[in-house]
Amino acid sequence: MTPRTIAALGVLTAWVAALGFLLVSVPNVELMTLSAFLSGALVGTGGGAVVGFLAMAIFSGLNPYGIAPPPVYATQMLGLAAIGAAGGVVGTRVAPRGIVSVLVYGALGFALTVFYDVLTNLATAVVIGATADPWPVVAAGLAFTVWHFVFNAIFFAVLAPPFLAWMRRRHARRLA
Predict the structure, then answer these.
(1) What is the predicted pLDDT for the residue at 86?
(2) pLDDT of residue 175
(3) Between the chain's N and C termini, which has fewer beta carbons within 10 Å?
């Protein structure tokens, strides 16, 4: 790993974590999912996973509302790592223009948010001892996070295409 790569991962990690703190007081509205995804599109699958993992470790570890219990903390980091990796896989393969990309990225933002919330809600069920039947806890958590799905779908639909188009123009040789 080159010093340039390490620096890029550090800057992207700081960017993702900072965006987490930017909206920390607004329930279920965040830009970390989108920014981790875009980071993966920029630096690839492995780099996106590293950025997502480290950014969530920083954000959740320093959250002003307190750190999550260990199982939830671990799934938060793994979930955002998977989203960063997804950016490396998908982010460079869908053309970032036109209504189709808006729909694709909106659906992707929705699906990745559902994945993340199911994962962390399952960890919450473990924390509260509902391991025999975790699905009522997961369902209750998902009902609370509907706005999370909606806002991330909108953020992905509206912001991902222009950012990816800019990244393609600016970093075409790296994203090929």
Answers:
(1) 97
(2) 42
(3) C
Predicted model pTM? 0.91
Q: Do residues 31 and 19 lie in contact, with contact meaning Cβ atoms separated by under 8 Å?
A: yes
Q: What is the dihedral of CA 90, 95, 100, 103, to 10 degrees?
A: 40
Q: What is the pLDDT of residues 27-85, one digit of tens each?
A: 889 999 999 999 999 999 999 999 999 999 999 999 999 999 999 999 999 999 999 99
Q: Which fold does the domain 3-175 belong to in CATH?
A: Arp2/3 complex 21 kDa subunit ARPC3 (1.10.1760)
**For residue 21, which of 59, 54, 61, 58 has the smallest C-alpha distance?**
59
- SS3 state at 55: helix
Query: How many Å is the Cα radius of gyration of the chain?
Result: 16
